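Bumping with the actual sequence this time:
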Amino acid sequence: MKKIAAGALLLALFVSLAGCDLLSTIVAVKGFYTEYTDYSGRYTNATQFTVEANTDLTVTETNIADLNSMSTDLYFMIDKDSPYSYTVQTLDGVTKNSVYHNDNGLLIEYIIDGDTVTPTIPEASETQADAGDLFSMDDFSFQDVQNELKTGDHSYEFDVYLNQVVNMEKLASFADALKVFDENLTSLDNAMAHVQISFEDAESVIDIQATLTDYVITFDDESTVTFSLTNHTTMRIPADFQMPDVFSDEYTFVPSSDIRLATKVYAADTAIVFPI
């Protein structure tokens, strides 16, 4: 009975790894799982870390009007012990620097332009960082991984369903024109992404690249689009972590009529200069 069970397990393993070199695949899966578990634990326990991400959607062919290639770069700093976070976002060439403050449930955005700060209450859609942090392994499953390879001491490659490594909700908000035709982007459910991931002990770096090349979608109304999607995300726990202090004297606040945004405190003997 034990031999039958062992044989069945071995057969199941062989079938699941079909098309790959069995030994290299086992090494790749074991090595990746070990390192990913280790580094995930580091970020779970870390209070401060940074994320840098670049996303490109390149449309190569389509009959859909106003569906164009897009790109976004995002850098953000997270401090779990602080109500503040910092982002630098570039969307199609336009850059915005912001400090976000979660003030007892009220989200305030401080937009930095040189030495001037404009406080505002952002729209909910504006806080999603426009798919800059598109990469997500929340739904990752080792059962669906294909073509695993160990490419270096701490680097791996594999193919996996796109919706397991990409936040589809953020992708939909990034590509609004696609969302018109497919609200939840279920047309991408069968898309396979090629993933390259590496780990570096110094600063606990996780470097991830996910690529989908020349994927074709045909919608119900016979509209079609062929596009490629790339996302490069780098996470690190830096030794030097210091986000901008928008309340320091080097910044001048633009006055707001919203009393909720009167958050900067000035000393009694401080000359207050309002930007014109």
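The tokens above came from a reply further down the thread. The longest helix spans residues 22-45.
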